[in-house]
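sry for the spam today, last one i promise. C-alpha cells for design, 112 residues
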C-alpha cells in the first residue's frame, strides 16, 4: 500500500501531529507499506525550512524512506527560496497537481 499525506497548516503542533501519523503508519505491522509521501502546500511548506521546529522529525522520516514534497507555488507566495529547504525535500510545481498525480498512481490520500 502507498499513502500520501497532505499538510496545509503552518501550526508546528499540528505539523508534529501529522508527522506522528506518518510514523505511526510506518510502525503499523498490520499494513504492508510500499511507499509514503508527504505533500505540503500553503503555510505547511514552512515546516521544511532547515531551522523549523519539526525539521529533525522530517529528517528522521526521510531517512526511513518517506518522500517530502513542497509546492513551488506556496514557496513563491511565502517568498521562500528552495535552497532554504531541507535536503530531503523535493520541490514540485503544484502541491495539488502532485496529490492528483500520486492518487492516480494508486496512493491512498490522507488529509492532516
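last one done:
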Amino acid at each position: 500500500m502507498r499513502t500520501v499525506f497532505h499538510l496545509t497548516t503552518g501550526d508546528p503542533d499540528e505539523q508534529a501531529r501529522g508527522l506522528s501519523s506518518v510514523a505511526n503508519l510506518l510502525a503499523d505491522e498490520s499494513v504492508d507499506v510500499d511507499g509514503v509521501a508527504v505533500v505540503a502546500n500553503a503555510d505547511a511548506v514552512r515546516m521544511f525550512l532547515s531551522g523549523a521546529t519539526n525539521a529533525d522529525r522530517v529528517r528522521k522520516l526521510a531517512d526511513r524512506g518517506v518522500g517530502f514534497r513542497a509546492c513551488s507555488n506556496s514557496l513563491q507566495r511565502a517568498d521562500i527560496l528552495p535552497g532554504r529547504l531541507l535536503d530531503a525535500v523535493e520541490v514540485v510545481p503544484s502541491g495539488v497537481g502532485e496529490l492528483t498525480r500520486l492518487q492516480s498512481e494508486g496512493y491512498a490520500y490522507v488529509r492532516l
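Strands lie at 2-7, 35-40, 67-71, 89-92, 108-111. ok im logging off now
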